[in-house]
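Folds vary. Our protein:
___
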Amino acid sequence: MPKNTIRYKSGYECQLVKDYIVQVNVKPDEDISFGFITLSRTGELIIKKGYAWDGATFLPDSTTVMRGSVTHDALYQLMREGKLDRERWRNQADIDLKTICMEDRMSPAYAWFIYLGLRWFGKPSTMAHNEPPVIVAPVKLSHTVGVVITSTIGGAILGNLVMGEYWGAAIWWFCRLHFWFFCKRERLLGQGDY
């Protein structure tokens, strides 16, 4: 049994292979340095090599959106972490994304579409509870997983024997979802024993 675990976040598909420096119109009162991100009072944003992000969220990753998406994701991450005031700077971060995309030859209509989508639906992405969760591996399972597995199989068999195929399948799916939720909860919270 492993003695060490790792803690990681998933959901990232892009990673910078070189530092990226861009001038933005988000200019905090004090310089901010957090992880891979540095933002100066003059609006110089430095995103360091190794920074990972999910690309253009809900859009295809194209050359016209990638610089804007990494800039925007870094600024939103500073907001989620409480380093940058989201009420004051969120709109400007959205405008900077639109501007960078148009600089990179995105059509103005498409850039405006993205901007409006961010204005309508982007606010939750600036809130702390939307930071990707830390996952623990290997999964620490408790003794109740055996009970859940047994009840999943037993529930399906019993359901088939007693109530017929339809109800047996329904019970199996219910038990399976319960098992999935239980394992996800334990993986995220790192609870239980090996």
